[in-house]
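FAQ

Q: What does a record look like?
A: Structure on top, sequence underneath. For example:
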């Protein structure tokens, strides 16, 4: 097992670039069979989800080098495959081959297929009127007449119906640009 490769891969795997590559693979069908080269990206900093990006811009390179994975027998102990260790090594080998292939193609001035993906995060309750959601029972909605009086025992349940901000994320645009763009 190549410990140095695993160390470098683990560092990369928690980076913003690694999440951007996964984001592209998930949201751009044309990325299948290509290496993804991230040029620029920006996450939604306040989002707890690492896959929420404002935008990701980059290039798709055809795969000209294919990874050669170690045999599973190298990760078999007492007849049982250590699936986690093997998976981690195959991901590390794939990552290393991808970077090598992209760098070689860049050195040969191969033009990638450029792409851009744009996402947006917004409060889906932003236009809601009133203190409580529309699906609140009438007796709960009646509490909105006097929000300063919290003596009613219904308040124990009422706050679950409050019109709190609820942020939603969606990809608004995912496209591969025409050649020369």
């Amino acid at each position: 097992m190549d410990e140095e490769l695993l160390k470098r891969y683990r560092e990369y795997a928690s980076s913003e670039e690694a999440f951007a590559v996964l984001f592209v693979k998930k949201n751009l069908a044309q990325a299948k069979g290509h290496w993804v080269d991230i040029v620029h990206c920006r996450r939604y900093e306040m989002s707890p989800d690492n896959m929420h990006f404002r935008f990701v811009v980059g290039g798709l390179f055809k795969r000209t080098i294919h990874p050669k994975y170690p045999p599973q027998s190298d990760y078999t102990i007492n007849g049982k495959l250590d699936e986690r260790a093997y998976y981690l090594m195959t991901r590390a080998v794939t990552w290393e081959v991808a970077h090598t292939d992209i760098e070689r193609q860049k050195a040969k001035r191969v033009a990638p297929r450029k792409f851009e993906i744009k996402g947006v995060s917004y409060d889906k309750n932003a236009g809601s009127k009133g203190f409580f959601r529309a699906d609140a029972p009438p007796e709960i909605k009646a509490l909105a007449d006097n929000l300063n009086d919290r003596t009613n025992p219904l308040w124990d349940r009422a706050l679950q119906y409050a019109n709190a901000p609820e942020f939603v994320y969606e990809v608004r645009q995912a496209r591969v640009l025409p050649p020369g763009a």
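Q: Is there anything notable about this one?
A: Helices lie at 3-13, 16-27, 83-107, 138-141, 155-158.
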